[in-house]
Amino acid sequence: MVRHYSVVGLGKLGASMAAAIASRGCNVIGVDVNPQVVEAVNAGCTPIQETDLATTIAANRERLRATLNVDEAILNSEVTFVIVPTPSDTRGAFSLRYAAASFSAIGRALAHKRTYHLVVLTSTVLPGATRYGLLPLLEQESGKT
Predict the structure, then answer these.
(1) Which residues contact 99 (CB under 8 A, 6 or more apart)?
(2) Would you call 58 exposed, middle or buried from its count of C-beta atoms within 10 A (0-12, 13-18, 19+)?
(3) SS3 for 64?
(4) Angstrom distance (rounded) from CA 112 to CA 108
(5) In 3-state terms, what secondary structure has residue 28?
(6) Domain boundaries, position 76
(7) Domain count, the chain
(8) Is there a contact between 71 and 106 (Cβ–Cβ < 8 Å)?
(9) Domain of 97: which CATH number?
(10) Contact (CB, 8 A) for 89 and 95
(11) pLDDT tens-digit profile of 63-98?
């Protein structure tokens, strides 16, 4: 059974998912670009308003922590969920800029990892975006297939 997870993006869905995984007895490292979000999680507080999230985070402090460092999270987990914003672009499609930045950073971290690591995109994207837009970035940065 997988015991070490990471969640990239600690917004409404990411923070809730990280807390839920920790509540199941697994270790979770959350990653966010906002230092205030990281500080809140590490203090056992919720970074956003969501029903029961504050109590879930507080109850699972020993298994849930946060960092600004993607490398730290990837090297200390077996599965990563990427849950970052995908706002609409000027054409009305989903922008992959945050997901692409996350996949590039994850790929760079995976280049230093010898064990298998599963990366799951949870953010909303159009069909084909992962296969043709994000997976190539992950492979290029990690040097792996």
Answers:
(1) 82, 84, 86, 121, 123, 125, 129, 134
(2) middle
(3) strand
(4) 7
(5) strand
(6) 4-142
(7) 1
(8) no
(9) 3.40.50.720
(10) yes
(11) 999 999 999 999 999 999 999 999 998 888 899 999
